């Protein structure tokens, strides 16, 4: 909550108290805290390592709880990005919040009794307050952003039938069982946010929710691109504040965890730190998984990792002097996409590219489709074989 303060001063959402938390937003966006100001705030802090933060003295209450060892670095004070925000985990948490809330699945859904009680405490949206009938069990009125059974089937159908190029994504359908989804990895959530979510929600949810989620997915897709331009980042920074403010009108306050709030700072951080694929945790997490696979003796994990690492380096070095067969530097391609030209002098009109995958279906073309294919070849093929038939 509170994302309206990042909007422009004359934005219509600032004076809309009824659709939000019942108050008008007059605050400005918080200023960026400099390293000098932080060091000045914690210069008199006193704490004991290993004890709770309740005994910290020399600092304002509910601010700093300790002095990090990174504060002693000589360049920390002048560093523009002192805390890197990991886009991988932020995107994962946002995706989980969206999917489990829209599907209304279990404890991970942000639409629960506690979230409805928050509405009652804030005295907003009385139609969604929990009701207590004669049975005494709390009844939660239905919300427009939770899918019906038919909409869930359409949503799961898109995820199950999605096909991607080899190596682009894992098999997401493995996570779907009996109208339930679980076990999504970080890269699965990345693919869903980038490619599938906006497509799967087109016919599966209210248009108001659908439009704002599509804008959020577009934001992540633009943020994760290989090239970033400063003018585009400025535009993204303005759009994300409006996107999150619109989501405040639709979703419950419990939806906006700290990870959802951090989305508003990603575009501003990218202006200083550059593209996110140089800073996110994907390569680190994958290498940690590789090191974890080296451990075969749980009593001595460090020794297992050291021995396996040395053995791997030795084999990699020796493979440079070996010819033939697969190795670290000479490995056969899983997908053969090379074009095999015909051995005859005449060029082949339809060269063989790649290898067949899966089953093969044979069908006959009717006269209309055959004529369309014939015209497509004549007008779109630059081969010398076709040039003779055009005249």
Automatic annotation (TrEMBL):
Superkingdom per UniProt: Eukaryota
Every DUF4218 domain range: 223-331
InterPro entries: DUF4218, Transposase_21
Pfam families in UniProt: DUF4218 (PF13960), Transposase_21 (PF02992)
Protein's UniProt name: DUF4218 domain-containing protein
